[in-house]
Amino acid sequence: MPHDQPVIAVEAADGHCFELIHVAPEKPAASLMFMPGMGLSARQYIPLAQALGEHGIEVFIHEWRGLGSSSLRADRAIDWGYRELLELDLTAALGRTLERACDSRLLLGGHSLGSQFAALLAATRHSDCAGLVVIAGGSPYWRCYRGARALLLRTVFTALPLVARAVGHFPGRQMGFAGREARGVMADWAFTGRTGSYNVDSIDQDLEAAMAELNLPMLGLRLQDDWFVTQASLDYLLDKIGGKRDYRTLSADQLGGRADHYDWMRKPRAVAESIALWRQEPTQERSAAAIRRA
Q: Residue 235 is part of a domain; what is its CATH number?
């Protein structure tokens, strides 16, 4: 789907080319680099970026390798994992974003898997990060879920990498989950789902230790009816990171539509307002129990 927003060309160290979508108000007061969810293209977040622009926040929307403007597509001969996404693509995208951003220290944010990578990027480039925004995101660790869902996820984290290996890539569209994903991405994602750790084999750095050394203001934004991301899942991710946090939960009434993992993208105004309000107010830590009482 075409769009009319400005783009910024990026080339990673291995020659992979893609574009950042830049959505900015006339006089931006803050800058956010935003990472999409698994299988979702940058252009799908333009409405969110435009809504944030109404609050003076410019947004640089990242494009995942293998999707949208990316010069690559996953297949049996072309594979990648978290190392390429984090150390090559996000590093290059961050560099280009810093060249254009109104602020030398960025808010890093993301949706779903993108929020996990926002945390990992902050951990590896902490001096460039002013805060972390997590939208419908958390750790996929199966122990953050209960009952049948926990057992289902434990099975999924074993089965999906096997499917990707057999086909040569993960056929997400055909299976009703994610997009056309590389085998390595599915293997690394499933490793975190099984173990709760981001120290995947494809990356030499101790990412768990790097996250523990962070001290950032954080916004954890949940959708009330999002079963993909439980409060325990969100807590498990943010508990890896040092710093003050603010949790906010949005209902269907606030959103004007379903408060689930994806539907908020159609009407992102309430999400944008929550981010803008958090940026303007002192960040205060609230317990999960306090959230449930609210």
A: 3.40.50.1820
